[in-house]
């Protein structure tokens, strides 16, 4: 499993710039964004729609790249990587939890969880063992053969979390992980994320609108108009 | 097993398991490929069958002498003086002689004549060949299967089996009106499905008399001592100067005819099939574009997990190829069931009807399959590229 929390910056953004073009007009989102997150931290990012939360998460996931500045995660300089290298980095260094789970409906829960392991040189038997282990970890032991459509939203999100952690990445990125869940299911998912951070030392960055979800994090950053406005640390 | 292979396999499996969502458009792609395969296979089977029929006709040990510089019987004329000169050739000229020392030969004329069907509604154009009594013996692989051979000097006909099956008045004892006179069918002969079976044979003098062609000879068939003896015959014919003579083996004569007609069939078949293939390729492109649009969240999710662009490309491309392959299978199966062995007829040499069987050979199947597969490969390539270029950020929002 990953190393415990330290104060060394694991994620570092320096003067990151990012914008979009609408027709001929350039619309800046970040003009000089700075951020450091130490290894093992659990950071919630809140902010109104259009504040740049999802854009930031996409850049941290290597799905999008900054227009300028420096973006470092661990020893990797994502701002200098091409698409192929970022794809390979995603496969080995992070897991992602989606708001709408993004499970492949034609595959069973276990097959969905196994997907990231197909990118690693593992034998089928080893892959199956790891899938069983993480399904057990998220409380879905014995449910691997079920299809997503037969599971509740909370259970599907647990499958999503299992898929995100099955290759044991140091970094977990969560995009509104409780946004599509009822209160009870959301509580279970948040408890799971807290467990992954506290017990397994995962560094977690979570984008959310939900203050209750944010309260599970060690730190909450408020993003507005491309800038972090305030920071709250958990007691 | 390499990572890329596992990635492609996983994506392909997801693609194929999701086919139910796009069943109608996938089936339409398969059927359009099947149609292209059917059309091309149909034309090629026709050309192959025609070619096989004529290629199986004629012997390399029988020489055909044509006059007037013509290389086809229809335009040939051997003047009496030249004919006498040929038949009087002495010594070793590469031709078999009978016990009396005469060349084993048959003088022949060929013409087309219309014969009315029983209901009088249709008229078929038949090839009527007048020949000496030795003519049938000069055809290798020909056997009388019913009745008897014609009697010299009478209006009796021996009908090829292919023609007897299709044509009117082929039954033994039947009366057939050719020109202004009635003829009697006295026999039927088989020739292994070759072009001979599309002819009607009769006595040379009876045919010449009935059609006002007295004294005319268009071709002279000679039994060679062996296939290589045709050179000796050509050299010997150098002394006959009454008309420019063309000497070919009987096999060469029919092969030359088959090449021209088969090429003509292909000339029609290939452009039509290619035109349809362009349409099917557009259909495949549309199907696979729909497939990529339908799977954009799944593709984007897998890409976000770290699956490579190459895997997304190959999985989509292979899906298109597999659908095309199923279409090819359907097309080949239909072609086989519909066309193979189907009896057809066309105008052969001498503008007479010639029967032949369509043949869906291995070569026909291979060519039609390749064209069908190409529609899938070409039609699937662009959507496969599109799959690699999906904007991941937009695709991930599509789950909302």
Overview of this structure, please?
The complex is a heterodimer of chains A (235) and B (400). With 235 residues, chain A is an alpha/beta fold. Chain A has one domain (38-65, 82-233): 3-Layer(aba) Sandwich (Rossmann fold). Chain A contains 7 helices and 10 strands. Chain A has helices at residues 53-60, 83-93, 109-114, 124-137, 153-165, 183-198, 211-214, and strands at residues 9-22, 25-38, 42-46, 68-73, 76-77, 94-97, 171-175, 203-207, 219-224, 227-233. Chain A has a 6-stranded mixed sheet with strand order 6-7-8-3-9-10. In chain A, a hairpin with a 2-residue loop joins strand 9 (219-224) and strand 10 (227-233). In chain A, helix 4 (124-137) packs across helix 5 (153-165) and helix 5 runs parallel beside helix 6. Chain A is globular. Chain B has 400 residues and is α+β, with helices and mostly antiparallel strands. Chain B has 2 domains: 3-56 and 258-397, no CATH class; 62-256, no CATH class. Chain B contains 11 helices and 12 strands. Chain B has helices at residues 3-17, 23-55, 80-87, 161-166, 204-210, 230-236, 250-294, 296-305, 309-339, 362-388, 392-397; strands spanning 62-66, 105-116, 123-131, 143-147, 156-160, 175-178, 181-190, 199-203, 219-223, 246-249, 343-347, 353-357. In chain B, strands 1, 2, 3, 4, 5, 6, 7, 8, 9 and 10 form a 10-stranded mixed sheet that branches. In chain B, strand 11 and strand 12 form a beta hairpin. The longest helix of chain B has 45 residues, at 250-294. The model of chain B has no long low-confidence stretch (mean pLDDT 85). The interface between A and B is medium-sized, with 31 and 24 residues.
Mean pLDDT over all positions of chain A: 90
Q: What fold name stands as the CATH topology of chain A? A: Rossmann fold
CATH superfamily of chain A: P-loop containing nucleotide triphosphate hydrolases
Specify Rg of chain A, calculated over alpha carbons: 18 Å
Q: What pattern of helices and strands is seen along the backbone of chain A?
A: EEEHEEHEHHHEHEHEE
Number of DSSP helical runs of chain A: 7
Discrete helix count of chain B: 11
Helices and strands of chain A: which structural class?
A: alpha/beta
Sheet-strand content of chain B, in percent, reads 15-25%
Backbone CA Rg of chain B: 31 Å
For the biggest sheet of chain B, the summary is:
10 strands, mixed
Order of helices and strands of chain B: HHEHEEEEHEEEHEHEHHHEEHH
What count of domains describes the coordinates of chain B? 2
- Gap between N and C termini of chain B: 36 Å
């Amino acid at each position: 499993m990953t190393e415990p929390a330290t104060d060394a910056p694991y994620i570092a953004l320096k003067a990151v710039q990012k914008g979009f073009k609408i027709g001929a007009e350039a619309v800046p989102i970040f003009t000089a964004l700075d951020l450091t997150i130490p290894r093992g931290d659990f950071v919630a990012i809140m902010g109104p729609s259009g504040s740049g939360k999802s854009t930031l998460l996409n850049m941290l996931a290597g799905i999008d790249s900054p227009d300028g500045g420096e973006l470092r995660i661990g020893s990797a300089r994502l701002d200098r990587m091409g698409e192929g290298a970022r794809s390979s980095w995603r496969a080995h260094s992070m897991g992602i939890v989606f708001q709408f789970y993004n499970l492949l409906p034609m595959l069973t829960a276990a097959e969905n969880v196994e997907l990231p392991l197909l990118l690693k040189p593992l034998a089928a038997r080893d892959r199956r063992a790891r899938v069983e282990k993480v399904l057990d970890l998220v409380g879905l032991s014995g449910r691997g053969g079920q299809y997503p459509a037969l599971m509740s939203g909370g259970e599907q999100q647990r499958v999503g979390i299992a898929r995100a952690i099955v290759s044991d990445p140091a970094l977990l990125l969560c995009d509104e992980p409780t946004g599509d869940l009822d209160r009870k299911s959301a509580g279970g998912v948040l408890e799971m994320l807290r467990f992954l951070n506290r017990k397994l030392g995962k560094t977690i960055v979570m984008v959310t609108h939900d203050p209750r979800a944010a309260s599970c994090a060690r730190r909450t950053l408020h993003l507005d108009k491309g800038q972090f406005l305030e920071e709250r640390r958990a007691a | 097993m390499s990572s890329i292979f596992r990635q492609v396999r996983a994506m392909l499996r997801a693609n194929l398991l999701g086919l139910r969502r796009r069943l109608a458009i996938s089936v339409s792609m398969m059927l359009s490929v099947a149609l292209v395969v059917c059309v091309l296979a149909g034309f090629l089977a026709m050309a192959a069958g025609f070619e096989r029929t004529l290629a199986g006709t004629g012997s390399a040990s029988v020489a055909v002498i044509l006059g007037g510089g013509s290389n086809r019987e229809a335009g040939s004329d051997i003047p009496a003086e030249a004919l006498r000169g040929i038949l009087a050739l002495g010594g070793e000229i590469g031709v078999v002689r009978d016990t009396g020392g005469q060349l084993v030969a048959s003088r022949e004329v060929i013409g087309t004549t219309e014969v009315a069907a029983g209901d009088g509604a249709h008229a078929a154009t038949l090839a009527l060949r007048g020949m000496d009594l030795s003519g049938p013996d000069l055809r290798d692989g020909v056997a009388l299967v019913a009745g008897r051979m014609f009697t010299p000097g009478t209006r009796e006909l021996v009908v090829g089996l292919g023609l007897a099956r299709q044509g009117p008045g082929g039954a033994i004892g039947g009366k057939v009106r050719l020109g202004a006179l009635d003829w009697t069918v006295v026999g039927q002969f088989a020739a292994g499905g070759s072009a001979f079976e599309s002819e009607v044979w009769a006595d040379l003098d009876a045919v010449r008399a009935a059609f006002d062609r007295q004294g005319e000879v268009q071709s002279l068939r000679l039994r060679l001592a062996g296939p290589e003896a045709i050179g000796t015959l050509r050299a010997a014919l150098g002394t006959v100067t009454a008309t420019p003579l063309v000497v070919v083996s009987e096999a060469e004569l029919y092969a030359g005819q088959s090449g021209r007609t088969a090429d003509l069939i292909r000339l029609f078949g290939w452009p039509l099939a290619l035109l349809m293939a362009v349409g099917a390729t557009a259909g495949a492109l549309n199907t696979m574009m729909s497939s990529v649009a339908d799977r954009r969240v799944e593709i984007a999710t897998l890409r976000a997990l770290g699956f490579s662009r190459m895997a997304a490309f190959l999985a989509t491309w292979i899906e298109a190829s597999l659908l095309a392959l199923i279409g090819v299978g359907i097309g080949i199966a239909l072609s086989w069931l519909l066309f193979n062995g189907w009896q057809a007829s066309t105008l052969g040499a001498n503008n007479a009807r010639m029967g032949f069987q369509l043949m869906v050979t291995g070569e026909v199947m291979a060519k039609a399959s390749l064209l069908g597969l190409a529609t899938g490969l070409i039609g699937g390539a662009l959507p496969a590229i599109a799959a690699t270029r999906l904007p991941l950020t937009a695709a991930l929002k599509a789950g909302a």
